[in-house]
Write a structure and sequence with these properties.
- There is one protein chain.
- This protein is an alpha/beta fold.
- It folds into 2 domains: 236 residues, FAD/NAD(P)-binding domain (3-Layer(bba) Sandwich), CATH 3.50.50; 223 residues, no CATH class.
- 32% of the residues lie in helices and 17% in strands.
- The chain is built from 16 helices and 20 strands.
- A hairpin with a 3-residue loop joins strand 14 and strand 15.
- The longest helix is centred in the C-terminal third of the chain and has 21 residues.
- The chain is globular and about 70 Å long.
- The two termini are 18 Å apart.
- The model has no long low-confidence stretch (mean pLDDT 97).
- The structure holds 3-acetylpyridine adenine dinucleotide.
- 3-acetylpyridine adenine dinucleotide binds next to helix 5.
């Protein structure tokens, strides 16, 4: 019989399987897709690439793995990342313990046995002592729900479920709905092929250039030369990566020229470094406004038509409080004659017709509609599994007012159920792979400890969970983040409770806390011996 069921064969599930095998535990992974890779298996839209430097966005658990894999670009594209993950799966021989094309439909905790009873969507039943949700934070696409969409005669695609064989858009008229990271990465690529692109924008996003290109051999060698130290710095950093580490100065305490120069340097460096230019950007509206003004000035510099530049400039939320985008030629694309920006704030989207998209002001005939409308983030995957804990209580009920957890790792009343990068942990506010490794290591150590010590179950106490939920909220409320209508708060899914889901206290501080909890006998958790 199984010690552990792992749901999902993305970066989390793969590493969890590797760790549990190393402990001599019998684990099996169930994956809905036909192969490994999670996010990087599904998100194959043109232009999909990582927004953290490649060498930082890779597993650190095996030095040999790290030394033998060579990244080609500063920000690796999806096909290269998927090749890397396939290499990992082969190198550690993971596939024999992964069952593909299988979705876990339900997971019920059996209190008499102290085990999880699971069922797949094709009726297979299984049970295991531990149930690990390695289900991803952005794995359930928002389903398009536009009036008239079923009448559309052309082809439709969701960026998060892009066809594996690719899509030839040569000469096509394409509508892209949405202007988040997926849209911002794909629009410049789509515009290279398409005859005409209409970009339907509800909320403009801030985006900084990636300055992508071949990875510099100097950077790659320097990274490896100080590998252990770099990895340690990552783990103890605020966001799980080094290249944009925060400066201590406050934007409000430097002169105009110096501030502009710092922003310019960071913009030239690219990626998230702009967000980390000063220590007060995320907390002080005045400082944040300075970053916003700088970004607006860059948009005006790049986009030739001042009216288009103005529409592309965010005005109603602070800089960086919706996930910052990292682009290659996004603002530039609006200088192309075949790209038109349609502002849905000026003229709301009315219907999708047989021939295209209709707004209050115009009718746009297209052959293809690309829905770049995002995900039911952080809780979406778990809420789609029928999960029942003690007394048959449903997780969806426990989370009806928003997700509640202790450390983002476990939920009170759901013994031996673990959420890798769950809500209440730094997860999406960090370099995911660093946070994934931290969670997997912490959880694997815990499962090893329980096995060695003959412990049957673990669960958080209600008190420790309540205190953690309060702390997560407090931490968010110290910042400007809750001001924006972002998916961090579930604001993009109608009816979803408005709760800031990730923990903003920082990756390093959070790791220290988790380690202290473990070192103090898993403080805040109840551990029970086998009956
Ligand atoms: O999704 P999003 P995404 N009518 O939710 C719009 C990660 N990621 O897939 O803002 C019209 O950000 C919506 O408008 P609004 C990254 O963490 C990383 O782009 O709700 N428009 C918004 O513009 C990212 O943040 C990379 O007003 C509608 C867009 O659709 C996360 O995934 C690349 C609409 C959705 O944007 C999600 O990004 C890609 C409607 N009914 C993704 N509904 C990297 O670079 C929604 N929208 C690694």
């Amino acid at each position: 019989s199984l010690d552990a069921v792992i749901i999902g064969a993305g970066i989390s599930g793969m590493y969890m399987l590797h760790r549990l095998r190393g402990l001599g535990l019998k684990a099996r992974v169930y994956e809905a897709g036909s192969d490994i890779g999670g996010t990087w298996f599904w998100n194959r839209y043109p232009g999909a690439r990582v927004d953290i430097e490649s060498q930082e966005y890779s597993y650190s658990f095996s030095e040999e793995l790290e030394r033998e894999w060579k990244w080609s670009e500063r920000y690796a594209a999806q096909p290269e990342i998927l090749r890397y993950l396939n290499h990992v799966a082969d190198r550690f021989d993971l596939r024999p313990d992964i069952q593909f094309n299988t979705r876990i439909a339900s997971a019920h905790f059996d209190e008499t046995k102290g085990r999880w009873a699971l069922a797949t969507d094709d009726g297979e039943t299984l049970d295991a002592k531990f149930c690990i949700a390695a289900t991803g934070c952005l794995s359930v696409p928002n389903e398009p729900n536009f009036k008239g969409q079923e009448t559309f005669k052309g082809a439709t695609y969701h960026t998060g479920r892009w066809p594996h064989e690719g899509v030839d858009l040569t000469g096509k008229r394409v509508a892209v709905i949405g202007t988040g990271s997926s849209a911002i990465q794909s629009i410049p690529q789509i515009a290279k092929q398409a005859a005409q692109v209409y970009v339907f924008q509800r909320t403009p996003n801030y985006s900084v250039p990636a300055h992508n290109g071949p990875i510099s051999p100097i950077v790659a060698e320097a990274w490896l030369a100080n590998r252990d130290e770099n990895r340690q710095l990552q783990r103890m950093s605020s966001a799980g990566f080094l290249f944009s580490n925060h400066r201590e100065e406050l934007a409000t305490q430097v002169g105009d020229n110096e501030r502009r120069q710092v922003f310019e340097e960071r913009w030239a460096q690219g990626g998230f470094s702009v967000q980390a230019a000063f220590a007060d950007l995320a907390v002080d509206p005045v400082a944040n406004g300075m970053a916003a003004d700088f970004a607006a000035s860059k948009i005006r510099e790049i986009v030739k038509d001042p009216a288009v530049a103005d529409r592309l400039t965010p005005k109603d939320y602070p800089f960086g409080t919706k996930r910052l985008c990292v682009d290659t030629g996004y603002y530039e694309v609006f200088n192309q004659p075949n790209v038109e920006l349609i502002d849905l704030r000026e003229a709301p989207l009315d219907t999708i017709t047989a021939t295209g998209v209709k707004t209050a002001e115009g009718d746009y005939a297209v052959d293809v509609i690309v829905f770049a409308i995002g995900f039911d983030a952080m809780t979406g995957a778990l809420s789609r599994i029928d999960i029942q804990g003690r007394g048959g209580a449903a997780l969806t009920d426990a989370w009806s007012e928003g997700p509640k957890s202790y450390l983002g790792l476990m939920v009170a009343g759901f013994p031996n159920l673990f959420t890798v990068t769950g809500p209440g942990s730094p997860s999406v506010l960090s370099n995911m792979i660093v946070s994934i490794e931290q969670h997997v290591d912490w959880l694997a150590d815990l499962m090893g400890f329980m096995t060695l010590n003959g412990l049957a179950t673990i669960e958080p106490t209600a008190d420790s969970q309540n205190a953690w939920v309060d702390h997560v909220n407090e931490a968010a409320n110290h910042t400007l983040y809750p001001v924006a209508n972002s998916w961090y708060l579930g604001a993009n899914v109608p009816g979803k409770p408005r709760v800031f889901m990730p923990y903003i206290g920082g990756v390093g501080a959070y790791r220290t806390l988790c380690d202290a909890v473990a070192a103090n006998g898993y403080m805040g958790f109840k551990l029970r011996p086998a009956a």
